[in-house]
Design brief:
By secondary structure, the protein is mainly alpha-helical. The protein is built from five helices and four strands; from the N terminus they run H-H-H-H-E-E-H-E-E. Helix 1 (about 5-25) runs antiparallel to helix 3 and helix 2 packs antiparallel against helix 3. The protein is rod-shaped. About 15% of the residues are buried. The structure holds zinc ion (ZN). The site of zinc ion has 9 residues, from loops.
């Protein structure tokens, strides 16, 4: 086989591996994001738990204030009770006192209920804090695993890129440009083997004369259909 064809075959093999390597690097980004998302959602849950606790504390203070105000009102009515002269005024005041008492009792119940709720809210905050700490720890470990993986894959990528450059350096510039162009246009497959007189990449059959030329391997023959560079089926030398 012509040395240029041999170089193209080796370059194609390196590029095939390189595509896989770059794919592995690209798949690291979503994993990074997933690790960060876990922390973000745990942080949001903590913020929500804190906001809820704040609202409950405010509701308790409001209920306590209501109890105080209603108590004052009651005492005021009690004082008035000793001052009224008319019977109907007396009865009306007794009703007012009773109503205030009733309302105060309701608000006292509300104070007790919100106190219970405050206890639950505090427990929820503690649980959310623990969950956040666990999520942060998990994310840190995942990020360092990803970083370690990335440095390995980057080193592989660099080594492959160096080998690729070395192989392609010996090609005539026009052929190298053609190879690179085909690689970009044909989804990473610029070189295809000839199988039973057909292009293994697109399946198109070659006219006998062209097939013979490919089998001889004396020069660059392209597939008349897909334009890829065709090579005979031979075991290429080690890339
Ligand atoms: Zn083809």
């Amino acid at each position: 086989m012509h040395p240029d064809l041999d170089r193209l075959v080796r370059a194609q093999e390196i590029d095939r591996v390189l595509t896989g390597t770059r794919g592995r690097l690209e798949r690291l980004a979503p994993r990074r994001k997933a690790a960060d998302d876990g922390v973000a959602s745990a942080r949001l849950a903590l913020e929500q738990a804190e906001a809820h606790a704040k609202a409950v504390a405010l509701a308790r203070r409001t209920a306590e204030k209501d109890v105080e105000t209603l108590g004052e009102q009651e005492r005021k009515f009690q004082t008035q009770l000793t001052q009224v002269k008319k019977n109907e005024e007396y009865t009306a005041l007794l009703h007012e006192i009773e109503a205030a008492k009733q309302k105060r009792s309701e608000r006292e119940t509300a104070v007790l209920e919100t106190m219970d709720e405050e206890g639950r809210a505090a427990a929820a905050i503690a649980a959310a804090k623990a969950a956040l700490a666990a999520a942060e720890k998990l994310a840190a470990s995942e990020q360092s695993t990803i970083a370690a993986e990335e440095s390995v894959v980057r080193a592989e990528e660099q080594a492959l890129a160096a080998r690729r450059d070395a192989v392609l350096a010996d090609l005539p510039p026009a052929l190298r440009a053609r190879y690179d162009r085909l690689l970009g246009a044909k989804r990473g497959v610029a070189v295809a083997v000839l199988e039973k007189d057909a292009c293994a990449a697109c399946g198109s059959h070659l006219p006998p004369q062209k097939a013979i030329a490919v089998r001889r391997g004396e020069g660059v023959v392209e597939c008349p259909d897909c334009g890829r560079i065709l090579v005979p089926v031979t075991v290429p030398s080690t890339p």
